[in-house]
Description:
By secondary structure, the chain is an alpha+beta fold. The chain is built from four helices and three strands; from the N terminus they run E-E-H-E-H-H-H.
Amino acid sequence: MNQAPLLEASHLSLSFRQKTVLDDISLTLLPGQIITLIGPNGCGKSTLTKVLLGLQKTDSGRVSRRKGLRIGYMPQKLTLDERMPLSVSGFLGLTRDARRADIDHWLARLNITQLASQSVHNLSGGEWQRVLLARALLIKP
């Protein structure tokens, strides 16, 4: 097994409106390793995750990811404009390199095949979470 890091972060710091959210955070994620982020609301868990994914810039520090690394990300919330009609299948089809067979596989595996033609705007919270999980898995992380 290749033990070169999947991801390395060093000395990450970030502030929003004079509130320090991340302060000199460093970590290394190796293949097969699981890291759990725990802490109270507002302590920076989601912000750190977004920084590690490259979705949020920091004030200082650096993140490096193994070349070709694919990370399946399932956000806590994702709000779509309700004026845009979009079915579950259509939403999943927007995932990079998503194939119909893969979409059908994850819909079945997550027991949400019956939602395929429904509007994403009419889903319950739990149904939406399953759709977001399917989306994260479609990229083959």
